[in-house]
Structure prediction request, 634 residues.
Amino acid sequence: MRTIGIDLGGTNASAVVLDDERTIGHAKRKTPADGGRDDVVAMLAKVARDALDDADLDATETVAVGVGTPGIVVGSTVGNASNVPGFDERFDLGAALEEALELPIRLVNDVTAAAVGEHRLGGGVGVDDLLAVFVGTGVGGGLVLRGEPYEGAHGGAGEFGHLVIRPGGAACPGGRRGGGAAYAGGRAMEQAAERARVAGTPTVLFEVMEEKGKQRATSGVFKTALERGDELVADLIDDAIEALGAGIASAVNLLDLDLVVIGGGLADKLGAQFLDRVDAAARPHLFRSPPAVEFVAATLGDDGGAVGAALLAREVA
Amino acid sequence: MRTIGIDLGGTNASAVVLDDERTIGHAKRKTPADGGRDDVVAMLAKVARDALDDADLDATETVAVGVGTPGIVVGSTVGNASNVPGFDERFDLGAALEEALELPIRLVNDVTAAAVGEHRLGGGVGVDDLLAVFVGTGVGGGLVLRGEPYEGAHGGAGEFGHLVIRPGGAACPGGRRGGGAAYAGGRAMEQAAERARVAGTPTVLFEVMEEKGKQRATSGVFKTALERGDELVADLIDDAIEALGAGIASAVNLLDLDLVVIGGGLADKLGAQFLDRVDAAARPHLFRSPPAVEFVAATLGDDGGAVGAALLAREVA
Prediction:
């Protein structure tokens, strides 16, 4: 069966054409930085057609489209996504895209899509119950339970970045205090580094950003600063690992999971050592002894979300 | 359909006969304090027959038996339950009881059984995704997801008492640090009160225990101490509520639940005020705004586990 999968992000959207288990077409476009939801819908239709072109197919040769989107998905609608123009307020993205592409649409949260990709074709093949954690600009979590994506009662499951780790602790980007994302996401780590710099703590982080011509502390910027022996960055990453370990252990204890898949920009850049350290940070908090859960790296990289969305599209074909 | 449900606890076992949605027979027996697993199996068979007698039925007039047991259930086996003689090591309780009662057996974790009881006939009727939290001697959690009990990859789901709330914080009974049970269970609260007394903090808790002729600080003992204005007990309950609120919020954020059902001895004794305070303690940590989750009291009381087990028995009838 041949389906299209799209992964919509705040910066880029990527699309794949999936033929059974093989990716036969690829495309990427910039997400409009301003404008409205119509501009985003038009871009999504274009990136899908680009991927079809790349596969030398037209739309009639595929059966459905899956779309992974930030925010909270309910049926064919999405809302609560502040990083995509016009996606803050709930609207019927499924209907709009179905009209543009003349194919049935399956909408899903982007992180849940990536979890499904890893579950069926990536690091999580063969298990029924997993948590996929993606550590990049923020921290996202997606659940597969009993072999199926678990989207929650109102489409908001997997908010792993908001597990309460330290009541009254550091502030999260969202304004609550003590959530895991407060420690573990790139944006929060950059903000913490900025506060430390203002307070006089030496760090090369902002020099590295400038050298690399980046506006933001990307995963690559953190990696380089770490390689140069930056103690502040090493401390921030230690804190991130501690928070991730505690949060993951809570999820594993609550759900008795088979597997934790770790991916995302920062995890990919820091490699096996990052995975091993998160694993080690989680162990002391695990209830089961010996622990019945394993930790593995995500294997689909940036394609995971689009591949997972393409797999879920089969449900509506 | 007519089934038997048994709820095995460390102190007592209770049994019901369930006829559709009606409980038509009741029985209760002491769990053997010593001896081995054979004594426990014999007692379980007896309490089931007592409930049949109470309903004026014999075993051939029912179709199956559900058993909620402490520990980790895998298929028809149970293990890891240190509070029942012989249940520490894994064994085939289902087969042993099937031989004794000549009826098919459905084994399930006791707290999951209670969650199912509340979901189908108690405070959680009509929702698909709920967490039931029982606060008594310890803290137990049971999950119903997509309308079905969620037992986890290895039968150990719902370990709500082991959500990591404060890394490096107070010790849990199980030896890990910072789990919710460290603050919220009656046994842990009694231990904390004992430490405080040794350190010179005034408290009437132990006098109340003696007055009531109790060996342990039961839920009733805590309630009376609180009514007498005991500040230490008030502080311990404040801490328990804070820990429960944070832990529940983490579960709600991760799973996007419809409903949280609160029950157990301490919750029942302290009444609506306890429920309202746990609800209020969870709110600041919830990711969804406005929160999409509701908090309600468990309504089946001590019968919840046996009723849930009887309902699950229908699966094997």
